[in-house]
From TrEMBL:
<dbReference type="InterPro" id="IPR012675">
    <property type="entry name" value="Beta-grasp_dom_sf"/>
</dbReference>
<dbReference type="InterPro" id="IPR031167">
    <property type="entry name" value="G_OBG"/>
</dbReference>
<dbReference type="GO" id="GO:0005737">
    <property type="term" value="C:cytoplasm"/>
</dbReference>
<keyword id="KW-0067">ATP-binding</keyword>
<dbReference type="Pfam" id="PF01926">
    <property type="entry name" value="MMR_HSR1"/>
</dbReference>
<comment type="function">
    <text>ATPase that binds to both the 70S ribosome and the 50S ribosomal subunit in a nucleotide-independent manner.</text>
</comment>
<feature type="domain" description="OBG-type G">
    <location>
        <begin position="3"/>
        <end position="254"/>
    </location>
</feature>
<dbReference type="GO" id="GO:0005524">
    <property type="term" value="F:ATP binding"/>
</dbReference>
<dbReference type="Pfam" id="PF06071">
    <property type="entry name" value="YchF-GTPase_C"/>
</dbReference>
<dbReference type="InterPro" id="IPR012676">
    <property type="entry name" value="TGS-like"/>
</dbReference>
<protein>
    <recommendedName>
        <fullName>Ribosome-binding ATPase YchF</fullName>
    </recommendedName>
</protein>
<dbReference type="GO" id="GO:0016887">
    <property type="term" value="F:ATP hydrolysis activity"/>
</dbReference>
<comment type="similarity">
    <text>Belongs to the TRAFAC class OBG-HflX-like GTPase superfamily. OBG GTPase family. YchF/OLA1 subfamily.</text>
</comment>
<keyword id="KW-0479">Metal-binding</keyword>
<dbReference type="InterPro" id="IPR006073">
    <property type="entry name" value="GTP-bd"/>
</dbReference>
<dbReference type="InterPro" id="IPR023192">
    <property type="entry name" value="TGS-like_dom_sf"/>
</dbReference>
<keyword id="KW-0460">Magnesium</keyword>
Length: 361
């Protein structure tokens, strides 16, 4: 499932450093604006300790986790919606992403230059939001009159026009659609066809330092600022050092820093959830694997991720929850204990289901 999260932000906030750490790639990370011109794409494994346990139970030879795709998009500057700083190209890259991860600088370092006008995290967030809002307003200024004309001659979609007008009012009030839709009674699904930038799900990553990682007041203030989006606080430089270590060394270094989860693991997990995704699991002697599906998918849809024949010829699915499988020790024991269920076409998959599909083509 090729869904991507676009990493955006002002220049010199640590986007490329974060991306390097996420993907273990050496994308150019330089101390000057526009070091990133073309978007770089990286596929990141989703941490899932359940797979290790399944591999242990089934004697699996390999483990295949789910993945999250990140796109490193060049820095946006004030005026991007009018084409400043290659803005049109960058906004097009954002439009192609399924969610937006905004990296914001929350550290003080005189050796790392700030772009003109950048002073603090709150102002940087406002700059990016403003440019995305202006880009969406440009889209709606063209779209709404067209929809009004089509509805007037009874050849248009009145519901779409109403949704577009609600979206326009939210944006004109200076709020992104992701933040303001719920309060205004707008279902973002109703404007999906308009491909508006601020209607995409948002995640905020605050690139901070040791002081910021333990500053509860700072974190609380910034979380409130970006709600309902989730906020992640990490030190991109520390994370880039962490991924170069062996797992045991990395775990020790993480513990010494007072953290129980790497910031990158948290970002991958939150990003996966923000995209509206979940996993189900399969296991056997060859492999233990996590399969990516959308939340709310039925068993036949989930089966189709493995192969279209599985969906087309779906008969039933034998399902055991991961917790029940671990508790009983095997599928056979789960069956004996009445923990294995046979589900039909209407079954809605739950995260962590361990499944064996039966099909006939």
């Amino acid at each position: 499932m090729a869904l991507t999260i676009g990493i955006v932000g002002l220049p010199n906030v640590g986007k490329s450093t974060l991306f390097n750490a996420l993907t273990r790639n050496q994308v150019l990370a330089a101390n000057y604006p526009f070091a990133t011109i073309d978007p770089n794409v990286g596929v990141v494994s989703l941490p899932d300790p359940r797979l290790d346990k399944l591999a242990e139970i089934f004697g699996s030879q390999r483990i295949l986790p789910a993945t999250v795709s990140f796109v490193d998009i060049a820095g946006i500057v004030k005026g991007a919606s009018e084409g400043e700083g290659l803005g049109n190209k960058f906004l097009a890259n954002i439009r192609e992403a399924d969610a937006i991860c905004q990296v914001t600088r929350a550290f003080a370092d005189p050796d790392v230059v700030r772009v003109e006008g950048s002073t603090d995290a709150e102002g940087d967030i406002e700059t990016i939001s403003t440019e995305l809002i202006l880009a969406d307003l440009q889209t709606l200024e063209k779209t709404v009159p067209r929809l009004e004309k089509e509805v007037k001659i009874k050849k248009g979609d009145a519901a779409l026009l109403d949704a577009a007008q609600k979206a326009q009012a939210i944006l004109e009030a200076g709020t992104t659609l992701f933040q303001g839709a719920a309060a205004a009674g707008l279902d973002l699904a109703d404007v999906a066809s308009l491909q508006l930038l601020t209607a995409k799900p948002f995640i905020y990553v605050f690139n901070t330092d040791d002081a910021g990682l333990v500053d509860d007041d700072l974190q609380e203030r910034l979380r409130a600022l970006v709600a309902p989006a989730q906020a992640i606080f990490l030190d991109a430089k520390f994370e880039s050092e962490l991924v170069e270590l062996e797992p045991d060394e990395a775990k020790e270094m993480l513990a010494e820093s007072g953290q129980d989860e790497a910031g990158l693991d948290q970002l991958a997990r939150v990003g996966f959830d923000t995209l509206g995704l979940q996993t189900y699991l399969t296991a056997g002697p060859k492999e233990a694997r996590a399969w990516t599906i959308r939340k709310g998918w039925t068993a036949p849809q989930a089966a189709g991720v493995i192969h279209t024949d599985f969906e087309r010829g779906f008969i039933k699915a034998e399902v055991v929850s991961f917790e029940d499988l671990v508790a009983t020790g095997s599928v056979a024991a789960a069956r004996a204990a009445g923990k294995a269920r046979v589900e039909g076409k209407d079954y809605v998959m739950a995260d962590g289901d361990v499944v064996e599909f039966r099909f006939n083509v």
